[in-house]
Amino acid sequence: MSSGPPTHGQPMNGGEALIKSLELEGVDVMFGLPGGAILPVYDPIIDSPIRHILVRHEQGAGHMAEGYAHATGRPGVAMVTSGPAATNIVTPLCDAFMDSVPMVVITGQVPYAAIGTDAFQECDTTGITMPVTKHNYLISDARDIPRIVREAFHLATTGRPGPVLIDVPKDIVDPKNPRSALDWYWPDEVDLPGYHPPSKGEPEAIRKAAELILASERPVIYAGGGILKARAAEALRELAELCDIHVVTTLMARSAFPDTHPLALGMPGMHGNYTAITAMQQADLLIALGSRFDDRVTGRVGAFAPEAKIIHVDIDPAELGKVRRPDVGIAGDCRLVIEELIEALRELGGTPAQPDRSLWKSTISGWQETYPLTYEQSAPGELLKPQFVLETLRDNTPDDTILCSGVGQHQMWASQYWRFQHPYTWVNSGGLGTMGFSVPAAIGAKVGRPDRMVWAVDGDGCFQMTAQELVTASAERIPVKVAILNNAYLGMVRQWQEMFYEERYSEVYLSPDLPDYKMWAEAMGCVGMRVESPEEVLPAIEKANSINDRPVVIEFRTDASEKVFPMVPAGASNDDVLTFQSQFGENH
Q1: Max CA-CA distance within the chain?
Q2: 393 lies in the same domain as 364
Q3: Residue 190 lies in a domain
Q4: Same domain, 119 and 216
Q5: Which residues face 166 on adjacent strands?
Q6: Is residue 59 annotated as a catalytic residue, yes or no?
Q7: Domain of 437?
Q8: pLDDT above 70 covers what percent of the chain?
Q9: Could you say which of 16, 20, 30, 58 is catalytic?
Q10: Which candidate in 1, 10, 23, 121 is catalytic?
């Protein structure tokens, strides 16, 4: 099959048509692992300009596709076979569904006539994935392939983005089977009756929102991951500066607003900083942009921001009123709605029309001064403090470095202590909280943005779940860098057991020496290092930054007793936030 565009009506088989359709959707890379049912689709990849990256586990393929999407904004593509391969990619599908990540996953399936017979490596893939995909397809006719691929990419990338799955029976793509024959075509447009995601907000609602802003004395912009999905970071900054309103960025919105900006308050929520949490609690107006009032942000919902009126902007109408009833709900694309809101505010007088908020601003400054993020440095001979490692890493990497994290304590410290200057430089698993996300997601991000330095911050628990993908990175020459904060525990679980289970440490100890991370890294073709004292931290990071022909793994031996503060205990009100100062005294 030639790599040029096929002519209309050209005979081909389903496997060729599938790969051609991906090419026409602009796919330049895909992540996958072949097997029996998907084999006929793998054959035409040999003649395709699409780069295929062979993973070591199907979960890795899904997380790489996610990392690629996070870093580039383009849909990530993964392709795996049937049965256990399809079930292995369910976790990334659910992760992408929770975090609104555009992704298209192609799975092999047993021949169409064998479906339902418990054939070898058969499972009901569309049934299993229906709750965790935006949409899914089971192809029954090869002639539908171009249309379905076109629809899948349209669905994955428009409205609220998300994962779309295409399940492909083997006979539909097998050149030896007459059922796979079709005459090529490419649909000029997508025809999906009933699928009309909103784009612009209603003018009346926009004006009401603008009037609420002009009437508020204690407003806070509550920016969520939808800001990044809508490519609305620049619009958000313009709105904040026009109205001189502080901005909190949720875990999924980190990097959407520069942390060095005077209006930046950082992350709110269970492990947010005191000022971000308390500013939301005491606000008289929350301008929620692409955020979904997640339980990690609100704490106990009934006690959340009790005096605040709510403006809620979201592309998904189902989010409006789901958790908190808005005073003004606007279903629309975040970027377009913010631009319309800016226009309405300018018509109503712009910056000079804002009320005097000097008291609110000085209150916020007071909180920032009294309750900064802080920790106690390690004494000589003690294990490293994870916050120190992250600060050193932050201060000795380019400011457009892409930072990926796993899930747990190290994720919270990374979000807290990093200073994000550029949008789309934070890649993490928010809604599902998937351990093992970091390493494959970093590989996908580096493939999508080879010009950027990419660091994965991982815990020892997370790393052990998907570390084998560093074999993929070595084989494919993808020079990611990994910082393992090894505290020899499932750290976040240990923290909860210490604080809420009377220090009954049930099944959280992982051992500091098993495995040997340095040797494991070297066995996978990486440069491996181990760091145990503060003076070794910077030289190791500098050495890692200088290596660009293979992956690098640094194991940092960190203090297991260190806990993430601030913390809002589960089920508590955000007013009950525990800070480092409240736990250890003001003088620390």
Answers
A1: 78
A2: no
A3: no
A4: no
A5: 106, 137
A6: no
A7: 386-565
A8: 99
A9: 58
A10: 121
